[in-house]
Amino acid sequence: MKVLFIEDNPQKLKQVCDYMEEQYSNVELTVRKSYNSGLRELIKNNSYSLILLDMSLPNYDIVQGESGGDFEKFAGKFLLSEMYRRDITTNVLIITMYLNYVDEEFSSELKDNFPNYLGVVYYNVKEPDGWKNELKVKIDNL
What we know:
The chain is an alpha/beta fold. 41% of the residues lie in helices and 20% in strands. Helix 2 (35-44) packs parallel to helix 3.
């Protein structure tokens, strides 16, 4: 299973990658850390079976001494829009640390507009079993 994970938070990135490799022996993870690097990867290589996507991302990869440009709180939504516009139909799961993106109204809006959007997983560092179970259920139901 080829998975693209677009995430900028190092702790979340490590924990989710470790969990994916522990649960799925056949997983092949590619990581991108910004909106633009994620979009470039999708345009260049559209062979992923799943995208794990953070909702809030910097515009560009953050490197030492640089900010990564503006921080977009709806970068995940913008990426879904670009995928739709470019007819990239890879399934997408949002993994977020912010409760406002878990809101049913927001999730319904994404489902209505993007057929490849599968839902949201609330990543709560204080309750790792919760997000792990939720992520596993959503992936296993693909």
